């Protein structure tokens, strides 16, 4: 089974790239993060997954093993196909998806086009207990670090200031990842750190 593609980028958009591998051009549908790694003429190595349908095979490309693992978990949800699973990872980071599911927070997913309230609730319900299954070694430890106490209160405060819930969720995940732990931080501290993260354009 094809698991990795390494080659030179021939063409790239925000959602697709053509990668030359020994004279063969592989067209890959990309996550947002994978697309950011690609530029014409650059050699890249992307994790990948092949999905077959009546229309033919589709090759999906990912920046890392976590993205691929989250994509595969999304595919296990009733009613979620490759196109919609990819849209989730084009609209959110893999870390933000894991955070939303781990918190049981469907509103963290509804900012993605094509993901309504019911679909978001189904994703959280079906994956909350098994999201960590199949993640790369060590990822479960990182997820524990990403759990931010009082995150709902912080995100509501940020929403009242005009920030999108998805952006706020990603900012909290970035804070937890950078610091390694947010133990001892109060709501006001988290809001200030999140504002700094959001205003930095991260």
Structural write-up:
- The longest helix has 15 residues, at 165-179.
- The chain folds into 3 domains: 4-63, OB fold (Dihydrolipoamide Acetyltransferase, E2P) (Beta Barrel); 66-138, Orthogonal Bundle (DNA polymerase, domain 1); 148-202.
- With 202 residues, it is an alpha+beta fold.
- Helix content is 46%, strand content 20%.
- It is globular, with a radius of gyration of 18 Å.
- Strands 1-2-3-5-4 form a 5-stranded mixed barrel.
What is the C-level CATH assignment of the largest domain? Mainly Alpha
CATH topology of the largest domain: DNA polymerase, domain 1
Oligomeric status of the shown chains? single chain
CATH-defined architecture of the largest domain: Orthogonal Bundle
Give the SSE order as H and E letters: EEEHEEHHHHHHHH
Q: What's the overall geometry?
A: globular
Stretches with pLDDT under 50, minimum 5 residues:
none
Q: Spell out the CATH superfamily of the largest domain.
A: 5' to 3' exonuclease, C-terminal subdomain
Tell me about the largest β-sheet: 5 strands, mixed, barrel
